[in-house]
Design brief:
Blueprint (H helix, E strand, L loop, with lengths): L3 E6 L4 H12 L3 E6 H4 L3 H11 L3 H4 L5 H5 L9 H10 L8 E4 L2 E4 L11
Length: about 120
């Protein structure tokens, strides 16, 4: 039975599209979650970051204009505040997160997805 992989995907992101192509090419069964459409929950983000071994700060898409506009680039901003902002503005979560039987990771660089395939 093919492995099942979930990708938290942003179709506008070239890295996210390339990672999705790599997963599909591996023959794995893939579930695509377009997080910009469905959003995040606090529980979901905390579990995702913990599983990937990342803090909210490490998972923050600091290039997003909202990160600067909301003052989130200040290292004094707590993880709790970052997560609240990520729920309000899903674009603030770095992408793509990939979840599979072998673990959870932020597929940056995109080649990291091979660890799960």
């Amino acid at each position: 039975m093919p492995k099942a992989i979930t990708i938290y995907h942003n179709p506008k992101c070239s890295t996210s599209r390339q990672v999705l192509e790599m997963i599909e090419a591996s023959g794995a069964k893939v579930e695509v979650i377009e997080y910009l459409k469905v959003g995040w929950t606090k529980k979901q983000l905390k579990e995702l970051f913990a599983a990937a071994g990342l803090t909210a700060r490490q998972a923050l898409r600091s290039k997003a204009k909202e990160a600067e506009e909301l003052g989130l680039l200040d290292p004094k901003v707590s993880d709790a505040k970052l997560i609240d902002a990520m729920i309000e503005h899903p674009v603030l979560v770095e992408r793509p997160f990939v979840v599979g039987a072998k673990g959870t990771l932020l597929a940056r660089p995109k080649e990291r997805v091979q660890e799960l395939l």
